[in-house]
TrEMBL record:
Pfam assignment, any one: ATP-synt_F
Source organism superkingdom: Eukaryota
GO cellular component: membrane
Name this polypeptide is given: Uncharacterized protein
GO molecular function: proton-transporting ATPase activity, rotational mechanism
Coiled-coil blocks: none
UniProt keyword terms in alphabetical order: Hydrogen ion transport, Ion transport, Transport
Protein family membership: Belongs to the V-ATPase F subunit family.
Length: 121
């Protein structure tokens, strides 16, 4: 009998996205922080706002922290975060956390996304 120990303890969702996207998820009731002994400040934040002025190195650093956390099941990436991580994501070897790009409010869809939307409509 095989046990999927990879997912049973993964109960959190993390976000690297623009402020509007993060606020939308907060409105659904997703709590973006929790008390933890693993953080210097005692609170670990699962939301990281990526804006036009965010240094890509900061995005990569936060992403690497997220993928190492054993309680995170999924990481949602806004377009700017996904662009900053285009070389990092293929390096990921483990199945969890899952990484998924989501559309951003202020970013035009890519050509691939437009083609996909046309096929689906």
């Amino acid at each position: 009998m095989t046990h999927n120990t990879g997912l049973s303890s993964r109960t959190k969702i993390a976000f690297l996205a623009d402020e509007a996207t993060i606020n939308g998820f907060k409105l659904t009731g997703i709590n973006g922080s929790e008390w933890t002994c693993q953080s210097v400040h005692g609170v670990f934040n699962y939301f990281y706002v990526v804006s036009d002025t965010t240094d890509p190195a900061e995005v990569i650093s936060k992403y690497n922290i997220f993928i190492e956390r054993k309680e995170i099941a999924m990481i949602f990436l806004g377009r700017k975060a996904a662009d900053a991580l285009k070389d990092e994501i293929p390096k990921k070897k483990e199945m969890f956390p899952l990484v998924m790009e989501i559309p951003s409010k202020n970013t035009a869809p890519s050509i691939a996304e437009i083609k996909l939307m046309k096929r689906l409509s």
